[in-house]
């Protein structure tokens, strides 16, 4: 299983970015997916997750109403639309594949991880 993130970059505060994560392997369609991030000097933290069919999503309080997670089964891709970005959103963003069809906020719920894409928000 491979997870490849893209879409990171440098953006000004209040701007937007859309991250993508392409997953290889047929098991993508039956499993939940998640996004995590790690800022410099901080621990990795949960951002958002989506169930196998997109019917259930969970967000960290810090990103609610600003970020939206979605998935496209046809292309095995998970997206993270990020709006109203803040300097505190600066981090390396990872996508991860869950162990089951639903996915929570704990990193222990996930078994495969991408290498990350860097998001830098300038104030």
Task: Briefly say what this structure is.
Helices cover 0% and strands 49% of the residues. It has no helices and eleven strands. It starts with a strand and ends with a strand.
Task: Provide an overview of this structure.
Helix content is 0%, strand content 49%. With 123 residues, the protein is mostly beta strands. The strands form two sheets. Strands 2, 4, 5, 6, 9, 10 and 11 form a seven-stranded mixed beta sheet that branches. Strands 1-3-8-7 form a four-stranded antiparallel beta sheet, with no helix packed on it. A hairpin with a 4-residue loop joins strand 7 and strand 8. The protein starts with a strand and ends with a strand. 34% of the residues are buried. The model has no long low-confidence stretch (mean pLDDT 95).
Number of strands: 11
Count every helix, treating DSSP H or I runs of 4 or more residues as helices: 0
| Topology pattern, helix = H, strand = E | EEEEEEEEEEE
Uncertain stretches of 5 or more adjacent residues: none
Q: Helical residue percent?
A: under 10%
Kindly report the average pLDDT value.
Answer: 95
* Largest sheet: number of strands, sense, barrel closure: 7 strands, mixed
Secondary structure class reads mainly beta
Distance between the termini: 37 Å
Strand content: over 45%
